[in-house]
Amino acid sequence: MRKGVAIAGTVMVDEIKTVNGYPAKSELTTIEQRKRSMGGAVSNCSLSLAHIDPTLPIEIIAYFGEDERGQYLYEGFSKYNNIDLSKVQFTGETPFTDVIFDEFDKTRTFYTFKGNSTSFNEDAFPLSNIHAKILHVAYVLLLDALDQEDEQYGTKLAKLLYLAQKEGMQTSIDIVSENKDRYEKLVPPALKYTNYCIVNEYEAGKSTAITLRGQNDRLLVNNIKKALTKMKSMGVQDWVVIHAPEASFGYNGEEFYRLPSLSINKDSIKGTVGAGDAYAAGILYGAEKGYSLYESMKIATASAASSLLEEDSASGVKDIQTLKEMYDNWKKREDAFLL
Fold first, then answer.
1. Residue-wise pLDDT tens digits, 102-120
2. Which residues, other chains included, contact 331 with Cβ-Cβ below 8 Å and sequence gap of 6+?
3. Domain Carbohydrate kinase PfkB, which positions (predicted)?
4. 128 vs 314: CA distance, rounded Å
């Protein structure tokens, strides 16, 4: 019987640099603090899951570099007894991201070195030896080799997801946010072989060509329903979930759900790196445990909120019981009720 979650795809080291105001081009600003953490979807999701439930089996499928950063990743994951590293391959240079965190407005800007992620392909997946119930792959548009065209399935990632489902796994994807026009070409093939699609409102809008924010940056709820419906019709077999700062929205083919985000004082937010992955981890945990979409969205909402309480991507994420209590007891964002 399959159990647990396998997380595959982007893994890197985040070099977090805190500045008090982002400089204009050619200007200088002072780095107030610097910190290193494990980043990328593989780190963010797997560590969040490990914090949610330290007994949940987690398998990692990724390339670590043959360098100091690769060793840093290996040692970091090794601290968790429920994370299986047996499928990790060491090759090339470890990807890293300079995360510039603006202490003034709590935003972050990323400068990424792709390293060995450009060669991460279907050969990294020993499908017959993966024991997980769910295979989560992220991020679409950032996995160069898997985003390559496949004559039969559309992309190599789509073929991989198809083969994973044939092996008896459920599949899940997340997408990276980028300001390019590749979404409508690369996302639909993967959706055909996806059980759970978990994306933010920007990625959903770009993937469906539906405008999800209107005047004054207001979320367009009716359009979000259209986007959920369209992504489901493009092949997602179980759940489509769209999360935004104000609220999250889900569709299982029968019911639409809207849940407000938790209200957190701005002064309590230490960082937003990995909040989307913490949200995805909550959805994956609920799906693995057989929870309803509605209950899973509650866990995901609290998971994302708790991740904001620390600078890195996952150390703020709480255990499952605490997350349930957080969603039930914490104040909700008032603007979510105005949507």
1. 888 878 788 989 999 999 9
2. 262, 263
3. 5-315
4. 30
Contact, 244 vs 201, CB < 8 A? Answer: yes
**Count of Cβ atoms closer than 10 Å to residue 165 Cβ:** 16
Q: Which of 261, 284, 277 is nearest to 317 (CA)?
A: 277
Tell me the CATH architecture of domain 5-338: 3-Layer(aba) Sandwich (3.40)
Q: Please state the φ and ψ torsions of residue 241, each to the nearest 5 degrees.
A: -130, 130
- CA gap 48, 58 in Å, rounded: 11
| Residues sharing a CB contact under 8 Å with residue 222, sequence separation 6 or more, in sequence order | none
The 10 Å Cβ neighbour count of residue 2 is 15
Q: Is 333 exposed, middle or buried (0-12, 13-18, 19+ CB in 10 A)?
A: middle
Domain residue extents for the chain: 5-338
- Cα–Cα dist 174/44, whole Å: 12
Whole-number Å distance between alpha carbons of 77 and 187: 30
- Note the residue count of the chain: 339
Residues 227, 148, 136, CA angle at the centre, nearest 5°?
A: 55
- Chain center to CA of 153: 24
3-state secondary structure of 124: helix
Burial track 279-310 (b if 16+ CB lie within 10 A, e otherwise):
bbbbbbbbbbeebebeebbbbbbbbbbbbbeb
**CB under 8 A, 24+ apart: contacts of 122-126:** 122/146, 122/156, 122/159, 122/160, 124/8, 124/61, 124/62, 124/63, 124/87, 124/89, 125/8, 125/61, 125/160, 125/164, 126/87
In sequence order, which residues have a C-beta less than 8 Å from that of residue 39 and are 6 or more positions away?
11, 12, 13, 14, 97, 99, 273, 274, 312, 313
